[in-house]
UniProtKB/TrEMBL annotation:
InterPro entries given in the database record: C-N_Hydrolase, C-N_Hydrolase_sf, UPF0012_CS
GO function term, MF aspect, one: hydrolase activity
Pfam families per the UniProt record, alphabetical: CN_hydrolase
Protein name, per record: Putative amidohydrolase
Upper classification of the organism: Bacteria, Bacillati, Actinomycetota, Actinomycetes, Kitasatosporales
Organism field: Allostreptomyces psammosilenae
Similarity annotation: Belongs to the carbon-nitrogen hydrolase superfamily. NIT1/NIT2 family.
Length: 267
């Protein structure tokens, strides 16, 4: 399975419409990939809270959904579209991930995920955005993909639930600050080791309202080994992953069957 993590540079001086077109063009160029993953809140920036409501859009009828759905069809790829600030029908804002199939029969996102754990404590995202409640997996042709966003990475119980739901790989889109770069590396590896899944951790590059981004998107295998890692700048990280590795690790080191706190064994 060939996966590309698109570590997009989110510059506040680049108009949102221009970046939307640029990223859609990037996706169109990924023909031959099985899955492409984009970062968190790449239209505005993960720390660009003053711009969230201005650029919030309805899902699935917003301009980003339309652009990404067309790009996924053109490239023939499954697309994890990162996340966008969603304007819900209730008037609330959500940090919402969009997931697209390559099929022309699916002009809207196949699934969406509203970020459950909002960062900022009593400020920023935690104060301005509402929380999602649904744990989301998506069936790709050869694997089940779990979905998480940035701050979710610090909450292992979400990843346990994704594993119990049959996830063999988990995509984590993020806008992770450089000041906590080592946490990014450690937590991505920990979630892979604990759950014996591939973790596809896609961050952004550049600086969001003065908050420098970590970059260093990475693919971590079910044994916790970093298969590939990007640098700090804008970059496409393309990796061939062996999905049989998940079953192999779980068979030879069957730690998941020894859980005793009520979660079922993965499918």
């Amino acid at each position: 399975m060939r996966v590309t993590l698109a570590q997009v540079d989110v510059d506040r001086h680049e108009p949102v419409a221009d970046r939307r077109r640029r990223v859609a063009d990037l996706v169109r160029g990924r023909g031959g990939d099985d899955l492409v993953v984009l970062p968190e809140l790449w239209t505005t920036g993960a720390f660009a809270s003053p711009a969230w409501r201005e650029h919030a859009e309805p899902v699935p009828d917003g301009p980003t959904s339309a652009a990404l759905a067309e790009a996924a069809r053109a490239a023939g790829v499954w697309l994890h579209g990162g996340s966008v600030p969603e304007l819900g029908t209730d008037g609330a804002l959500y940090n919402t991930t969009l997931l697209f199939s390559p099929s022309a029969a699916d002009p809207a996102p196949l699934r969406t995920y509203r970020k459950i754990h909002r960062f900022g404590f009593d400020r920023g995202e935690a104060a301005l955005m509402s929380a999602g409640t649904e744990v989301v997996t998506v069936d790709l042709p050869r694997a089940r993909l779990g979905v998480a966003t940035c701050y979710d990475l610090r909450f292992p119980e979400l990843f346990r639930l994704l594993t119990a739901a049959g996830a063999q790989l988990v995509a984590v889109c993020a806008g992770w600050p450089a000041s906590r770069a080592e946490h990014w590396r450690v937590l991505a590896r920990a979630r892979a080791i604990e759950n014996q899944v591939y973790v596809l951790a896609c961050g952004s590059a550049g600086s969001h309202y003065g908050v420098r981004q970590t970059g260093h998107s990475m693919v971590v295998d079910p044994w916790g080994e970093v298969v590939a890692e990007a640098g700090e700048g804008e970059e496409l990280l393309t990796v061939e992953i062996d999905l049989e590795r998940v079953a192999e690790v779980r068979r030879t080191f069957p730690v998941l069957r020894d859980r005793v706190l009520g979660l079922p064994t993965p499918e």
